[in-house]
Design a protein that fits this description.
Layout lengths: L2 E6 L6 H13 L4 E4 L16 H11 L3 E4 L10 H14 L4 E5 L4 H4 L9 H18 L5 E4 L4 E5 L11 E4 L3 H10 L2 E5 L3 H17 L9 E8 L4 H11 L15 H8 L12 E2 L3 H13 L4 E6 L4 H12 L7
Parallel strand pairs: 1-2, 1-11, 2-3, 3-4, 4-7, 7-8, 8-9, 9-10, 9-11
Antiparallel strand pairs: 5-6
Helix pairs in contact: 1-2, 1-11, 3-5, 6-7, 10-11
Length: 328
């Protein structure tokens, strides 16, 4: 049996409001929360970007939901050893409810330390080394580590959970999908063409099998972007205004500032959101859209309503969409 989760968009909302939305989501049948980990919003008008790790502690106390970061890039704002300590603490406090979602990162958030922002292949190297460091520290043993990108000197995590939290990795390409299956516990991706998603899952399964793991028991999570409103016109208008980055169908990992995205947003039109954000008032279309990805084999679907109307979205999904979904 799969589940539907709520995407807590830290770029768009005050953390206190997001905590209220998460509690409402729990009351309406959502079973998990994926919380974005940004230093900056995509565009200044989105208005927020709180520290997600503080918030996840409050979420753990205030709800019974499963939750994780979606996603945290190790090795820039966070040294992998510090991130391992943070994740171990959250899991120790809320056993079995937390996952560590990792990704390669974007200059928008990671350039702030003033270090050189590397090319994509180097970012993947750094991610792989970070995962290795975190997994070593999750053993509870003293770790010494030297690599091309990181050093760890005599580090040990003393506050350990009974079992370490699972590590899920965001992936959008064949190489990283394969590595994710081989190195970690589960896959995170976003909505895309069916053929691409099937390819990503095949590569993920290949990596898992080569590592001696059963891919059928490894979570495959997809985050979907939607805009639900009272009319189709409002759904489109609000998506374009409040989530313009959703219509930018080009690599965004090297763009540094919200103001740069704001300038690009002036070129975004509703047609650019096609196949990227479902924008409609029709709840039957929402149900069919989510069901499509369940049928492709995803066992957890995270829904991000990209406009500001969170309460109406949560209640509508809780009443009309979630109960109508059918899981294999």
């Amino acid at each position: 049996m799969g589940s539907v989760g709520y995407a807590a968009s830290f770029e768009q909302f005050h953390p206190t409001d997001l905590l209220s939305y998460a509690k409402l989501a729990e009351a309406n049948g959502f079973e998990s929360v994926m919380a974005s980990d940004h230093f900056h919003p995509w565009v200044p008008s989105q208005g927020h970007s709180a520290f997600v790790w503080t918030w996840m502690g409050a979420l753990g106390v205030e709800t019974k939901l499963r939750f994780g970061s979606g996603v945290t890039p190790p090795g820039y704002r966070y040294h992998p050893a510090v991130l391992a300590q943070a994740a171990a603490t959250v899991e120790a406090m809320f056993p079995g409810r937390f996952y560590l979602g990792l990704g390669a990162g974007e200059a928008l958030n990671e350039h702030i330390t003033g270090d050189y922002w590397p090319e994509a292949p180097v970012r993947l190297e750094r991610l792989a080394e970070s995962i290795e460091i975190i997994q070593k520290l999750f053993t509870g043993k003293v770790v010494k580590y030297r690599s091309q990108h990181f050093n760890v000197e005599s580090a040990r995590i003393y506050t350990m959970p009974e079992a370490p939290p699972p590590i899920y990795v965001a992936t959008a390409g064949p190489i990283q999908s394969y590595r994710t299956g081989k190195m970690t516990d589960g896959l995170i991706t976003v909505g895309a063409a069916d053929e691409k998603l099937k390819m990503l899952m095949e590569r993920f399964e290949k990596g898992a099998l080569e590592a001696g793991k059963d891919p059928s028991k490894m979570p495959k999570i997809i985050q979907l972007k939607v805009s639900l409103a009272e009319t189709d016109e409002l759904a489109v208008e609000r998506a374009v205004k409040e989530w313009p980055n959703g219509g930018m169908a080009f690599p965004k990992g090297d763009i540094r500032n919200p103001e740069d995205f704001e300038a690009m947003a002036k070129l975004v039109e509703p047609k650019h959101f096609k196949n990227r954000v479902l924008m409609t008032a029709d709840l039957d279309q929402h149900r069919a859209y989510v069901q499509r990805f369940i049928d492709l084999g995803f066992d957890e679907v995270i829904i991000h309503n990209v406009n500001r109307e969170q309460e109406a979205f949560i209640e509508a999904y809780g009443k009309h969409v979630i109960p109508a979904l059918r899981w294999a």
